Amino acid sequence: MEFKSLLAERTEIMGASAIREILKVVSEPGMISLAGGIPAPESFPMEIIGELTERVIGKYSSRAFQYDLTEGFMPLQEQLAVLLQERGIKVDPCDVNIASGSQGVLDAMAKILISIGDKIAVEAPTYLGAISAFNPYQPEYIRMDTDDSGLIPESLDEILTCHKIKFIYLVPTFQNPTGRTIPLERRERIADIIIRHNALLVEDDPYGSLRYHGTDIPPIKTLAPLNVVYVSTLSKIFAPGLRIGFFTGPELIRKWLVLVKQGTDLHTSTFNQALAAEYLSGGYLKKHLPVILGLYKPKQAAMLNAIKRYFPKNFKCSPSDGGMFFWVRGPGGVDMEKVYYKALKRKVAFVPGKFFYTKEGEGIETMRLNYTMSSENTLERAIEILGDVLKEI
Amino acid sequence: MEFKSLLAERTEIMGASAIREILKVVSEPGMISLAGGIPAPESFPMEIIGELTERVIGKYSSRAFQYDLTEGFMPLQEQLAVLLQERGIKVDPCDVNIASGSQGVLDAMAKILISIGDKIAVEAPTYLGAISAFNPYQPEYIRMDTDDSGLIPESLDEILTCHKIKFIYLVPTFQNPTGRTIPLERRERIADIIIRHNALLVEDDPYGSLRYHGTDIPPIKTLAPLNVVYVSTLSKIFAPGLRIGFFTGPELIRKWLVLVKQGTDLHTSTFNQALAAEYLSGGYLKKHLPVILGLYKPKQAAMLNAIKRYFPKNFKCSPSDGGMFFWVRGPGGVDMEKVYYKALKRKVAFVPGKFFYTKEGEGIETMRLNYTMSSENTLERAIEILGDVLKEI
Q1: In sequence order, which residues have a C-beta less than 8 Å from that of residue B180 and are 6 or more positions away?
Q2: SS3 B72
Q3: Do B7 and A112 touch (CB under 8 A)?
Q4: Contacts of A115 in chain B (CB under 8 A)
Q5: Is A12 an interface residue toward B (CB < 8 Å)?
Q6: Measured distance CA(B24)–CA(B47) in Å, rounded
Q7: Which site from A116, A128, A277, B360 is most exposed, i.e. has the minimal number of CB atoms within 10 Å?
Q8: What is the pTM (predicted TM-score) of this model?
């Protein structure tokens, strides 16, 4: 009995994931993987985690293990309002809601807004996890142009003029996959455009705190407060295994996001929300963030230096001041999936960039390189090997 | 800016929740609530929770805080395979998957199987949380008849003969809202019927371990292993705030459930899964379950005795050997929503039964009474008051 005939239309469309297939070999022994997108385990505040759990159990007792409101655990909502304030976003604690990772917000956004065939505007390239959150709701993707400074505002303006767009999805800071950041003056123009078109922007900001150079740039949310659902997470500055995402945005949208979350998972783990509340209220994030930055900054530098040294000069690396990735574009005609299979034989893995595009045929000559999971030495060796492979082709 | 015009068709249909509205007053000070459906906080194993967290941190270190596979945290999958074995369900650890509460499985089931207008067969009455998981996918509900022994097999047979049903949703043991259990011989007939019709059953079993009288009855999964997705949770035997549900079922269905879960929340909290694995592997559940049963059994007895003593004789309480609820049906003509408002004035709340029916006009004369959250004395007082109100109408 296979039950295949029972599948919904959306499921039949989803099909197998090509990227999942090609990445299956990445965890083989001896492989150096630049393919992942996950934080280094050394970046977790393991030395205080025992203390945090004790504080939570002492302070909240059984409340930390009971069902809680879908909206979020109030002590965490209060702390996140403070964190958002530091990012320039003024909200009442009640207006910050908790999700099971940012992923939970992206799923819920699509669930409340997308009927089959509705249009979403996404960057080319864009975050793969967002695509897998949106796909089941069968949207049509409208791709927006980008360059080394991220989204090109004129492309957004044109799309909002020509299409009825349900929402725009952007990762403005240290984007996944490109590591790029939209500079302030572009953000201002983007804010003007979405306000003028009465459009709704989902601003996904998982990496904003991971800045190794330069100074912070305010979220677009601060420039167009009524038009933006701002989404962030503690996965990169605390621990991803706790699955704590959060969001704030227009009240009507938030109300619906909470309502559909109730049907999806009732609420996010109370205990983990309480741990996160203690992490923030106890000042641990402030003490620990420099440790995380100190860990990643030299890795980023090591990878960039190695790329400059070992990659052929016609392979261009996008500038990036933070996050977890570098993005390299080869000359036209390079097929990075072929490079991938050649590199695998030399025990180095990465993600061919084409998987981050919603339009077939784009990004064939691009690659995403992660630097958070390997040591500086390993990163240098891996990039040297990749450089050799690139020279061979 | 309200963005109302952006809502998807499914969202417009969902509308406001009547039950949410009427239950808003339940948490007012001085109210005795028999309306909830949550475990008593005293049922949580608080005395060992600190020890469990220490063991998890010692044993798994940063792994418990890192991203993990969507399928589940393997040490927990292994323990759940043992738990399922004890319930008569033989599975490999790889074939048990983890979800963010049972709710996560119900959402995913509907997501992979329901196109707009597809039919689901549900009991009348049925679990409200399932309805809120299924609703966004816009199914048509086909209601199946029940009596004091739960689902009437002939009703299921007839429905499978007349309709193309995507799946059947059942809570066979200590059902929410009725507390009823389907006896073995009915389960055998139900198993025969679904096998004969090649149908898919979602067997939701959150309360099975909470048995205060009688002996365990095997899940329908054991009688029709190829036709059943068996769903359960640790919420009632460990702690609901950790949001750990689990499921096993036909491979094709499981594969899709895992794939859509990846887009919904990536995976369930690693730390909480690790805590659950330690709770099970350390033998804590075996030691603690009798404590939970010892807590609830006298509450159940107190409520039942009070119902017998104080309710008018023409109000019938369904027999129940476990779980968290009693279900009372008044004579035709009684409007239990009116009783609800009268009872509120006397500071007692419950849930009018009509909210558990998918068809308007059914269950007007019914009520659901929860006994896990109040002391025996309070339960007796509340039922006495309710009895007075019932006699007045």
Answers
A1: B146, B148, B149, B150, B174, B318, B319, B320, B327
A2: coil
A3: yes
A4: 8-10
A5: no
A6: 33
A7: B360
A8: 0.96
Rounded Cα–Cα distance for residues B207 and B217 (Å)? 12
Measured distance CA(B197)–CA(B160) in Å, rounded: 7
Task: Give yes or no for B298 touching A (CB within 8 A).
Answer: no
- Confirm if B104 and A265 have CB atoms less than 8 A apart: yes
B16 — pLDDT class (breaks 50, 70, 90): low
When pLDDT is cut at 50, 70 and 90, the band that residue A101 belongs to is: very high
pLDDT at A233 over 90: yes
Same domain, yes or no: B341 and B309? yes
Of B389, B393, B376, B383, nearest to B310 by C-alpha is B383
Chain position carrying tokens 């292994």 = B78
Residue of A nearest to B226 (CA): A1
The confidence score (pLDDT) of residue B378 equals: 98
- Quote the pLDDT of residue B26: 79
Q: Which of B17, B20, B61, B66 to mutate to test the interface with A (most CBs of A within 10 A)?
A: B66
Residue in A153, A169, A158, A155 with CA at minimum distance from that of residue A118: A169
Residues of chain B with Cβ-Cβ distance to A61 below 8 Å are 41, 46
Q: Is A24 exposed, middle or buried (0-12, 13-18, 19+ CB in 10 A)?
A: exposed
H-assigned helices in chain A = 9-14, 18-22, 46-60, 74-86, 101-113, 128-134, 153-162, 184-196, 251-265, 270-281, 284-310, 336-345, 376-392
Domain around A130: 65-281
Please, which residues bridge with residue B238 across strands? Answer: none
pLDDT digits (tens, 9 = 90+) for A33-81: 999 889 999 999 999 999 999 999 999 999 999 999 999 999 999 999 9
Q: What is the CATH number of the domain that holds B17?
A: 3.90.1150.10
